Amino acid sequence: MKSVGETHNKLLAERAYMATELIYLHGPPAAGKFTIAKELAEVFSSKIFHNHLSIDVAKSIFDFGTDEFWDLSDDIRLRTIEAAFSNKVPSLVITSCYDHPIDLPFYEEIEVLAKKYGGTVRPFFLSCSTEELESRVANPTRAEMGKLVSISGLRDNLRDWNCIPVPRGNCITLVTEGKTPAQCAEIIKNELALVS
């Protein structure tokens, strides 16, 4: 009998010429988005487009947080996502600190692209306690990537951003606290197989 992962991988291979499956990992800073994305890349041979790729480019031109900064960052993200859909990349994992309702129009643009090219968007909200986020935020690997590393900065973001699950019926919340990245990836893999 085939495992859930083997079944899903077979379905992805069969659909590779037809559509892109975009796995949308979102949640607050330090929820584990990039770490879990790397695990999923191993499981599905997915490509990863994490949110700091566009942020790093935009920061090289504009001051962080300005309208020009966000316009460029969003443009890079959408053009990259469209390239994946239009070229039938079988599986793409993207990460985001989705802030509702400010980021909803951007998410809707992703859905428009998915529909245009026959792809799918599978949203997963990664959640854990504030205490756990605070214990993770100073991890040295975050500093290496230029991510937020201070507890005070995290608290500011949690106060200012409304990091909730994207309001879609197919959005699945995954509590990452107490689980390894591999365990989280396994849960996501199983959920994806159920809807494939």
Overall average residue pLDDT: 88
- Percent of residues in helical segments? 40-55%
Shape: globular
Order of helices and strands: HEHEHHEHEHHHEH
Q: What is the SS-derived class? A: alpha/beta
In the CATH scheme, what's the topology name? Rossmann fold
Largest pleated sheet: 5 strands, parallel
The name of the CATH superfamily reads P-loop containing nucleotide triphosphate hydrolases
Number of helices: 9
Number of strands: 5
Looking at the overall shape, the CATH architecture is 3-Layer(aba) Sandwich
Neighbour order of strands in the largest sheet:
2-3-1-4-5
CATH class: Alpha Beta
Strand content: 5-15%
Radius of gyration: 16 Å
Q: Kindly report how far apart the N and C termini lie.
A: 18 Å
Count of individual domains? 1
Uncertain segments are none
Sum up the structure in keywords.
alpha/beta, Rossmann fold, 9 helices, 5 strands, globular
Structure description:
By secondary structure, the chain is of the alpha/beta class. It has a single domain, classed as P-loop containing nucleotide triphosphate hydrolases (Rossmann fold, 3-Layer(aba) Sandwich). The protein is 53% helix and 14% strand. It has nine helices and five strands, in the order αβαβααβαβαααβα. Strands 2-3-1-4-5 form a five-stranded parallel beta sheet, with helices on both faces.
